[in-house]
Write a structure and sequence with these properties.
Bound molecules: adenosine-5'-diphosphate, magnesium ion
Protein name: Chromosome partitioning ATPase
InterPro entries: AAA_dom, DNA_Partitioning_ATPase, P-loop_NTPase
Pfam families: AAA_31
Organism: Nesterenkonia cremea
CATH superfamily: P-loop containing nucleotide triphosphate hydrolases
Shape: globular
Number of helices: 11
CATH architecture: 3-Layer(aba) Sandwich
Distance between the termini: 10 Å
Length: about 260
């Protein structure tokens, strides 16, 4: 499942993190592939720099590489009770600036299939999440070509709604041309503020535009989110009611996706 949006900063990485945390909690065996050259989800998942083999390197060696030999275990697993750790699966293909070499707008179809090739025959996971960079250039295409679903993330703002519309069109075109297996999982709305009339208006607009593709619950602006991510914690293990509500929202989203 690719987690995508045209715009940066809307919450792709945050949604990837939240779903990964919910998956770890529920025993859904998960692999997170960090395709964004900024490697934020690698940091957020408590993977130390230099561990494993970076996504960019694996993409270069796509024909030869065995993904499962190059993944790193997320440090989040240590948050589980000791007796659950051995069974838990939350692995990461770490990101780094190396992947940027594939982020050309004119990527060749041959290069586009590199992640798909890498994931062929990989077993042992119930869910593979690909955290994408904020563009529709090479890396996002590489992610889509390997995915069965795209999960879009949008903010309830004018430009984000317009960007999501464009992305949905791009997904339809892409799946017609290169990836018949690809479907739209839905749109997650992030950073909504209950006290904003503009947000309320945009939410109604999104309901009208996306209908059953609009995923609920909507994720609210939550001041703790940056602290949680900064500390590289799984949201399900952050103390306090505010984080608990956020964690529950991700449980609900995950249930609809897996
Ligand atoms: N619901 C939210 N409430 C508060 N801050 C958020 C929320 N979602 C994301 N953020 C913060 O906004 C910034 C951008 O989010 P991020 O997930 O990195 O976006 P993207 O991956 O789409 O670029 C991060 O610092 C993140 O902690
Ligand atoms: Mg990101």
């Amino acid at each position: 499942m690719s987690v995508s949006s045209l715009k940066g900063g809307v919450g792709k990485t945050s949604v990837t993190m939240g779903l990964a945390s919910a998956a770890l909690q529920r025993g859904v065996r998960t692999l997170v592939i960090d395709l964004d050259p900024h490697a934020d989800s690698t940091t957020g998942l408590a993977v130390s720099r230099g561990a494993g083999t970076e996504a960019g390197q694996l993409l270069r060696d796509a024909k030869k590489a065995q993904v499962t030999e190059h993944t790193v275990r997320s440090g989040w697993v240590d948050f589980l009770p000791e007796e659950e750790r051995a069974e838990a699966v939350l692995d990461v293909v770490p990101g780094s600036a190396l992947s940027a070499t594939f982020d050309r707008p004119d990527i060749r179809p041959r290069d586009m299939r590199r992640l798909r090739t890498l994931l062929e025959g990989v077993t042992g996971y119930d869910l593979v999440l690909v955290d994408c960079p904020p563009s529709l250039a090479g890396l996002t295409r590489i992610a889509w070509a390997a995915s069965t679903q795209v999960l879009l993330v949008a903010e309830p703002s004018l430009f984000s709604v317009a960007g999501t519309e464009r992305t949905m069109r791009a997904i339809r075109m892409f799946s017609n041309e290169y990836a018949p297996q690809l479907t739209q999982a839905g749109v997650v709305v992030n950073r909504a503020r209950a006290d904003s009339a503009e947000h309320e208006y945009r939410l109604l607009e999104m309901e009208r535009l996306y209908k059953d593709k609009l995923m609920l619950p909507v994720l609210e602006e939550n001041a703790y989110w940056q602290q949680i991510q900064g500390a590289a914690y799984p949201v399900h293990h952050w103390p306090g009611d505010q984080a608990r509500d956020l964690a529950k929202s991700f449980d609900q989203l995950l249930r609809q996706l897996v």
